[in-house]
From TrEMBL:
Pfam families in alphabetical order: Phi_1 (PF04674)
Keyword annotations: Apoplast, Secreted, Signal
Subcellular location(s) of the protein: Secreted, Extracellular space, Apoplast
Protein name in the entry: Uncharacterized protein
Family named by the database record: Belongs to the EXORDIUM family.
Domain of life: Eukaryota
Organism: Linum tenue
One GO CC annotation: apoplast
Residue spans crossing the bilayer: none
Length: 204
């Protein structure tokens, strides 16, 4: 018997639809992103359900993602689907929650898919910094509903609120973790590292 008894997951199911099994993640890039930034997010999503032995050994992103198999409905295997680019910011550079849903709807709707809107550093979203991302569902014009999420790039607007440990936090007293970790991340691309982490936190 194990010395430490593993605690059960205590997540209340509210009887809503679940994204389980093979789930397609469509990406809507809103604003200017470099090719390397695209690659970081796409590679991260693919690594969540990587089949290689090295990625499934602990600790790894894939081994962390395996915990979702214990939730109601079983495992969720992510597949990167459509990628839409709106680098001209057709809806402007300040977006409302309704506009986020409208952007997400561009990737269509279907069973077992989620549309993720990624906004660049120069795009403001209502309520940004009090929230660095969100998720929900919307209604398609052709009927049916779609699941979506938004992840914003906080690097120029509020990195101290949204980007720890990739950026020095505003409130030092609330920091948990070595300062050296922050210095390592500060030498990297704060913005896209943060966005990949937020994608993970939503647990698609």
């Amino acid at each position: 018997t194990a010395l430490v008894q593993e605690q059960p997951l205590l997540l209340k199911y509210h009887n809503g639809p679940l994204l389980k099994g093979n789930t397609t993640v469509n990406l809507i890039w809103y604003g200017a992103f470099s090719a390397s930034q695209h690659a970081v997010v796409v590679d991260f999503l693919r690594s969540l359900t990587s089949s290689s032995k090295s990625s499934s050994s602990s600790p790894s992103v894939a081994s962390w993602w395996l915990t979702t198999a214990r939730y109601r409905g079983g495992p969720c295997n992510l597949l990167v689907g459509r990628q839409l680019v709106d680098d001209k910011c057709s809806l402007g550079k300040r977006l409302s929650s309704a506009q986020l849903a409208a952007l997400a709807s561009r990737a269509g709707h279907g069973k077992n898919q989620i549309n993720v809107v990624l906004t660049s550093a120069d795009v403001a979203v209502d309520g940004f910094c009090s929230r660095c991302g969100t998720h929900g569902s919307g209604s398609a014009k052709s009927g049916g509903k779609f699941a979506y999420a938004w992840v914003g790039n906080a690097v120029s607007q509020c990195p101290g609120q949204c980007a720890w440990p990739f950026h020095q936090p505003n409130h030092i007293s609330f920091v948990v973790g070595p300062a050296v970790l922050q210095s390592i991340f500060l030498r990297r691309e704060v913005n896209i590292q943060l966005m990949a982490s937020l994608v993970r936190l939503f647990g698609f």
